[in-house]
Structure formats: C-alpha cells, structure tokens
Design a protein that fits this description.
This protein has helices at 3-11, 28-34, 40-47, 114-123, 138-144, 146-155, 157-181, 202-208, 210-222, 239-243, 261-268, 289-303, 323-336; strands at 52-55, 61-64, 69-71, 77-79, 87-90, 129-133, 185-188, 193-194, 197-198, 226-230, 249-251, 273-275, 309-310. The protein is an alpha/beta fold and 343 residues long. It contains 13 helices and 13 strands. The chain has a single domain, classed as TIM Barrel. Strand 8 (193-194) and strand 9 (197-198) form a beta hairpin.
Length: 343
C-alpha cells in the first residue's frame, strides 16, 4: 500500500499493511533541524509520514513587533511564537454592536490554501493532504475573549449563536474551497476540554456547538472529504455528541487520568478511527530512545488491533520535542506497526 491507501483503509476501519503515521502540526524548528531548509512535504517524503498537513493560512499586520503582536484577518491580535498556534491577546468584538457590519475573511483568498494546493500537486493519490481548520468554538471565543464568550452562552445565547453561525458559514465555504483544490481530509481542531474535563456541559455543547460541527461534517462528506476531529483534554463526556456529528476519526486521545487509548478502543473502536496517544509532554520530550519506543509499543498494543487506528502524538510535535526523539518515534512506529501486529 502507499500512504493514501493505508490512511483511507484505517479511516474506513480496515486493516492496512502497517499502522499509518498521522502527524498534524510540527514545529518549524524541528523540521529545520531534521531537514535544513526543508518543508513539511520534504519531511513527509523522506521519513514516510503518511499524511501531509497544513493549517489554513492567515496574513498578519504588525501591532507591536517587540512583543510579537500581530493582527490576523479576523481582527484578533495574536502573539506569534515558535510553535504552530498563535495566542490571542486582544479581541475585536467587545459588544453585540461590534458584530453589526463585521465581515469575516475571504475563505477563498489565494493565500488561504496555497500550501495545501502545492502539497496536492506533489502528492495527490500518493499521500493524503489534510487541512487543519477551526470549527465552531475557537474563533468565536477569540473574537470575544474566552471568559466573555463562555458567559455569553448563559447570559447572551442569541449573541453567541450569531457569532458561531458566522464562523460556521466561513468554515463551510473553506471546506468547499479545499475540496476544489483536491484536499482529501479536513481536521477541525477546536479544543473543548481542559485536562480535568469539558469547558461546558454536554447539554450546552449539544445546543451551541454540535449543530455547527455537524454542518461542517455534512459539507465535507458531500464533497468527498473525510473528517478527523481534534480536541485535547479529558473529553470522554463529549465523545458521544461528537460522534453524532458523523466525524470519521478522533484525535489525539491525550493520555490522562481517567482516559486511555485502551478504553477508547474498547468503547469506540468499532465506530470510529482512533488517532494518537503518544505522550508528547513527557515521552516525546525525553531523549531516551527506550522510553519512546516503549510508548510506541504501548499505543500499538492498545489501539492497533483489528485496524481502524493511526499513530500520532497526543497533540503535536511541538518545539520542545528533540528532533532525534521525533525520529526515534517515527522509526519505531514503522518498524513495530506492520500488520499482523506482534509485540
């Protein structure tokens, strides 16, 4: 099998020739250390990553260069750092009046999916290309600020839903644009939980966020795309309503107290493809090959039986992951992940 066949076999809950490696965000400094001057695409080709992943691209205008503050196309002031995800520091929608006349960015702006278009040209049919994007929560809370937005869900629900609906419409059009350039998978990345549990009750999630995610999934499926839902944290209370949206896979199943890959495999392995669980906080930041290989072995043992599993970090290959440790993980995943799994 090539990577494309391998990944789609796993997404369809089948057994490929080996467990696919599905990494999302990889810190630029890690890529640079492994392939100086290289790209995500070069890394995927040389080290046989099975998916080529890029987030949608935004342009930024400087606000305070000394502090690394830049304004994105939503009007959100972000602090840009070494890792893949910027941090919001100022929110443009202070009150409901600010939403009147507010215009979201153009989802079809030429730069939005330019890197994905390049990856499709290079890998179409050989490796699936995946779009990282928002869904229903991240942009709304960044537009309002986390505490204000969460309060809106209770005190100003109509206002909150207006913001969510605007963002969902943007994301649906982004999915259509991605399908037109040949992207294979979307990975909505909004996080709904802390490491102690969800940020809102399952009932509130169903009311405010499930409809929008379901709409995004339906648009993706209508365009022939698969959907990998990402959310960090202790997410077990929200899994059922997330599955009800029709997503094809779930990522990254953080290894936390009360949450394990083995439990997810037992409960959901016959319903959805599972992705992730390599501990990126302690294990992948270790420089011990033995520790890394043992965690790869654990994930394969807990997740890979009967297919429907792809190995990945429990969040991302962030800037604190030593490049050599990343390569140890990749080599172990390839060497130990061949079916039939024998550990």
């Amino acid at each position: 099998m090539n990577s494309y066949e391998r990944v789609f076999t796993a997404l369809n809950l089948g057994i490929p020739d080996r467990v696919p490696v599905f990494e999302g965000a990889i810190a630029p400094k890690v890529i640079e250390a492994i392939i100086p001057g290289g790209s995500v695409e070069d890394l995927a080709e040389k080290y046989d990553l099975d998916v080529v992943y890029y987030r949608e691209a935004y342009r930024y205008e400087p606000v305070d260069i000394q502090k690394n503050y830049f304004r994105d196309e939503w009007g959100i002031v972000m602090m840009l750092g070494d890792d893949a995800m910027p941090s919001p520091v100022e929110n443009p929608i202070k009150k409901e009046e600010d939403l009147r006349g507010f215009s979201p960015p153009d989802p079809r702006a030429p730069h939005r999916l330019a890197k994905l278009a390049s990856a499709v040209h290079r890998f179409k049919g050989a490796k699936p290309v995946a779009l990282g994007m928002s869904d229903t929560f991240a942009i709304p809370w960044k537009l309002r600020g986390m505490s204000d937005f969460l309060m809106d869900l209770i005190a100003e629900p109509k206002f909150a839903k207006k913001i969510i609906d605007m963002v969902v419409e943007y994301n649906c059009e982004l999915v259509r644009a991605a399908a037109q350039i040949g992207v294979d998978i979307i990975r909505p990345t909004d996080d709904y939980a802390f490491n102690t549990g969800p940020m809102m009750s399952p009932q509130m999630w169903r009311e405010f966020f499930q409809p929008g995610l379901k709409k995004i999934v339906e648009v993706a499926h209508s365009q022939g795309l698969k959907v990998v839902k990402h959310t960090d944290g202790l997410i077990s209370e929200l899994i059922e309503p997330i599955l009800e949206t029709g997503v094809d896979a779930f990522h990254p199943i953080e290894p936390l107290p009360g949450q394990s890959l083995a439990q997810f495999k037992k409960r959901f392995g016959n319903r959805i493809c599972l992705i992730g669980n390599i501990n990126c906080k302690e294990v992948l930041t270790s420089e011990s090959p033995e520790v890394i290989v043992e965690d790869v072995r654990r994930c394969l043992k807990e997740g890979a039986a009967d297919g429907g599993y792809m190995i990945a970090s429990s969040n991302s290959i962030h800037s604190r992951v030593p490049p050599k440790s990343f390569l140890v993980y990749l080599n172990a995943a390839h060497a130990l992940g061949t079916y039939p799994i024998s550990l």
